[in-house]
Amino acid sequence: MCASCGAMLTTFEQYDLSTALLVKKRSGALQGFQRDKLLLSVARSIEHRRNASQSASELTNTIISLLLKHKPVVTTISSKDISQTTSLVLKRYDAASAIRYLSFQTPTSTKRDIRGMLK
């Protein structure tokens, strides 16, 4: 509580995954995990939905919790695993969002490619 005005203050603490979790890129390079990068790609995929910003944040939290469920806890995860987990979560949320997400991740050229993504 603020001593001068009496306002209640709260804090939101979050674990810094950029130092605890490394992402192995397709090139083999390692990069610190960036929650904001995942959040932006999810938000872009669901921008056609109502409450997209709130939903994007909640979906991102779900994706991260699924990625961290591995026992023993992994410190390196492939970008492919992130993409697969994200597309699975989005497919359960909204098929159109999953298609949008996957279209940003992989080159698609035919209806068969799109159908294959949804399996």
Descriptive terms for the model:
globular, about 120 residues, mainly alpha, three-stranded mixed sheet
Descriptive report:
By secondary structure, the chain is mostly helical. The protein has one domain (17-107). 54% of the residues lie in helices and 8% in strands. The chain has helices spanning 17-20, 35-45, 52-67, 79-93, 95-105, 111-117, and strands spanning 22-24, 30-32, 76-78. It has a three-stranded mixed sheet with strand order 2-1-3. Helix 2 (35-45) packs across helix 3, helix 2 packs across helix 5 (95-105) and helix 4 (79-93) runs antiparallel to helix 5. The radius of gyration is 17 Å and the shape is globular. The N and C termini lie far apart (52 Å).
Tally of discrete structural domains: 1
Order of helices and strands: HEEHHEHHH
Structural class of the helix and strand makeup? mainly alpha
Strand arrangement, major sheet: 2-1-3
Query: What is the gyration radius calculated from CA atoms?
Result: 17 Å
DSSP strand count: 3
Number of H- or I-type helical stretches: 6
- Beta percentage is 5-15%
Question: Could you list the spans in which at least 5 consecutive residues all have pLDDT below 50?
Answer: none
Helix content: 40-55%
Largest sheet, described in full? 3 strands, mixed
